[in-house]
Specification:
The complex is a heterodimer of chains A (200) and B (178).
Chain A lengths: L1 H18 L3 H38 L2 H16 L8 H14 L6 H14 L9 H12 L6 H9 L9 H25 L1 H6 L3
Helix pairs in contact in A: 1-2, 2-5, 3-4, 4-5, 5-6, 6-8
Chain B lengths: L1 H25 L4 H35 L2 H15 L7 H9 L1 H15 L4 H12 L3 H11 L8 H25 L1
Classes of the chains: A mainly alpha (200), B mainly alpha (178).
Chain lengths: 200, 178
């Protein structure tokens, strides 16, 4: 799946660019994107260190456990394959909470931490497990209570009521999250058979 | 209401960085040592993401710069138009899952052109706020743990984006006209 999507981006981009007379921009854009990706990874290092450090304190202080106790029951329904007291539950809880609070750059480190915990439960090292796919579905729709960035750009553009969209954003992101989770469940059911047929 | 939201978004980060270590200290955690222990994982993880990020960002950028994305936008425009999506919002629908900064740029442009309090402005704001950059999340989250085959996640993520976009259009029409 991802192989095809990736190839389509490249093939359609390069062929259309060539036909369109924009071929010289292709090389430039590929190189600048590669450099941009490296720059972004380096930027991530600082943010990751900061939030993973804070997360470690929260873990040791029992704050993560408190959050798990608070919204853990919902999380456990969404991730039935994760054992009850596994650290993955705590990490997923923190990711979802950070997402809801609109903590922007803290979400990624927490989400990665959750993925790492889920990976320990996964026998296959290259292929995503069902729980990993569910976590991704939850994160790509990104349920947020306070969309701070949007409020900021709205007021910068001179809106008379920048926070007006908070209500619609909440409803839409809640519904989109539910739809993504349902789609995830359905895909999970349909993908069971090929997984069993795999040799070994 | 506005002041409160503003205050929350400004205060929440510093407050967390304050409250968590203080609670930790009260609960007898060696806060500095714990922080460093956690932070030491940061470098390794970020470096691990790099090849995944290079692969995805190069492909997305080539797709955008070549004009193939505009071609795609133009080809699905009649369909989306037919179901009631304003034409000026269609590029945002395609950009949203591909690039976070790209989508933010497009939204800012729409807000400045049509006005933040216009229907277009409100829909664009809702689209930006209600979904996330699917390809970025997929690349970073799976890249960090070395997952090369994300299985059906791509479809689920894009379906979530499509649902988020269409719902933004219809719910905004319902709320701000009704």
């Amino acid at each position: 799946m991802i192989n095809i999507v990736w190839l389509v981006f490249l093939v359609s981009g390069i062929c259309y660019g060539g036909w369109n007379g924009r071929i010289e921009f292709i090389t430039q854009s590929a190189i600048s994107a590669a450099e941009g990706a490296v720059a972004l990874s380096f930027k991530l290092i600082g943010v990751m260190c900061l939030w993973l450090g804070i997360l470690k304190i929260a873990e040791k202080a029992g704050i993560v456990n408190f959050f798990s106790w608070l919204i853990g029951p919902i999380i456990r329904c969404l991730f039935p394959s994760v054992p009850k007291n596994h650290p993955a539950i705590g990490a997923i809880t923190m990711t979802v909470s950070a997402n809801m609070l609109g903590l922007g750059n803290a979400v990624t480190p927490f989400g990665i931490k959750a993925m790492q915990e889920l990976k320990r439960l996964n026998q296959d090292k290259d292929t995503a497990s069902a729980a990993m796919c569910t976590l991704l579905a939850l994160c790509t729709t990104g349920f947020t209570l306070v969309p701070a960035t949007i409020i900021a750009i709205r007021s910068a553009a001179g809106s008379t009521n920048p926070a007006e969209i908070v209500g619609t954003t909440l409803i839409v992101s809640l519904l989109a999250t539910i739809i993504a989770l349902l789609a995830d469940r359905i895909c999970q059911l349909f993908s069971k058979r090929p997984a069993r047929r795999r040799p070994g | 209401m506005m002041e409160l939201l503003g205050a929350v978004s400004v205060w929440i980060m510093p407050l967390l960085i304050l409250v968590i270590p203080v609670i930790g200290f009260v609960r007898k955690v060696k806060v500095y040592e714990a922080f460093v222990e956690g932070a030491s994982e940061g470098f390794h993880t970020a470096v691990r993401i790099m090849p995944f990020l290079v692969a995805m960002m190069v492909a997305v950028n080539v797709f955008r710069i070549s004009g193939a994305m505009d071609l795609f936008v133009n080809s699905i425009a009649p369909l989306l138009n037919y179901i009631g999506v304003p034409p000026e919002l269609i590029p945002l629908a395609i950009m949203r899952p591909l690039s976070g900064t790209g989508a933010l740029g497009l939204t800012t442009e729409l807000l400045n052109t049509y006005g933040p309090d216009s229907m277009t402005g409100k829909i664009a704001s809702t689209v930006l706020g209600s979904t996330d950059t699917t390809f970025y999340i997929l690349t970073v989250y799976f890249g960090a743990v070395g997952i090369r085959n994300p299985r059906y996640s791509v479809i689920v993520g894009l379906l979530g984006d499509l649902a988020g976009f269409l719902l933004s259009v219809f719910i905004c029409y319902y709320f701000f006209y009704g």
